[in-house]
Amino acid sequence: MPRSYSPNARRNLLATSADEPFLVAIEITHPDLAVPARFVNDSQNVTITGAEFFATAFNLVLPDDQQDQVPQARLEVDNIGRELTQWLEVSQGGKGAKCRILQVLRSQPDVIEFDMTLDLSELAITNEVVSGALGFKNTLMQSAVTVRYDPSTAPGLW
């Protein structure tokens, strides 16, 4: 799917030394979260389309585009405070969580230049970071039935 950037964003993408770098923001949603967890990879809080994103350091590796594999991304958020750890404990590891990735310019935080929502899985926590895999569920490789009759599940038939 082609991405359409604003003229200012296109100028920044093509510049060798951009005047204003992109801000990357993430929004983690889950049915057990009353309010989504919102973070921006910057030194100060930013309000994007009316929602405040809290400044914190995180490492985000965007999805790759490799042939014959489902796109995968990786997210690591600094483990500051107890909000994320408490949510992980209550939500049984964050099963069913989604992560929305946004890119904006500081001068125009209400103009979203890049927007992608991915499934958040494989959540792990240490004293330093909360990490997880971002991607899409591979529904084409899921079994259509709960029990399949093959030599391993029904050896008497073979």
Topology:
Blueprint (H helix, E strand, L loop, with lengths): L6 H8 L7 E8 L7 E4 L5 E3 L2 E5 L2 E4 L10 E7 L4 H8 L6 E9 L8 E12 L3 E7 L23
Describe this structure in words.
By secondary structure, this protein is mainly beta. The chain has one domain. It is built from 2 helices and 9 strands; from the N terminus they run H-E-E-E-E-E-E-H-E-E-E. The protein has a 9-stranded mixed sheet. The relative contact order is 0.19. The mean pLDDT is 82. It holds the Pfam family DUF1833. This is DUF1833 domain-containing protein.
- Could you tell me the mean pLDDT? 82
- Hey, roughly how much beta strand do the residues contain? 35-45%
What is the total domain count? 1
List the total number of helices.
Answer: 2
N-to-C span:
47 Å
Main β sheet profile: 9 strands, mixed
* Helical residues, percent: 10-25%
- The gyration radius over C-alpha positions equals 19 Å
Largest sheet, order of strands side by side?
3-4-2-1-7-8-9-6-5
Structural class: mainly beta
The helix/strand order is: HEEEEEEHEEE
Total count of strands: 9
